[in-house]
Specification:
Strand content: under 5%
Shape: flat
Structural class: mainly alpha
Number of helices: 3
Radius of gyration: 20 Å
Helix content: over 70%
Order of helices and strands: HHH
């Protein structure tokens, strides 16, 4: 329960305050107000979606969670990331 409060508080502080400061900095331009409203809704929908994903992952059994972490997160994410870094490292070498 505490993590949800923290995430929502973080969302409110960083998104709404940042968007309000952005709108005020541009002297309340209509385009900035519309853009800030759209971004806030998009960020809120992403927050809600990922909180639902997190709660589903939290309900996995230990075996399924271990399988998910090793196969999808580590093998899929880390190895792909290392491959991209290696590509960028060797792509910058000029022969």
């Amino acid at each position: 329960r505490g993590y949800k409060l923290f995430l929502v508080l973080q969302y409110v502080l960083f998104t709404f305050v940042g968007e309000i400061l952005n709108v005020v900095g541009d002297n309340f331009a209509t385009s900035q107000i519309i853009g800030a409203s759209v971004r806030s809704v998009v960020y809120l929908s992403l927050l809600i979606f990922w909180m639902k994903v997190r709660s589903r992952i939290a309900r996995l059994s230990d075996e399924d969670l271990s399988k998910y972490l090793t196969e999808d997160v580590v093998m899929g994410g880390v190895l792909v990331g290392l491959g991209q870094i290696a590509f960028l490292m060797f792509a910058s070498i000029q022969c």
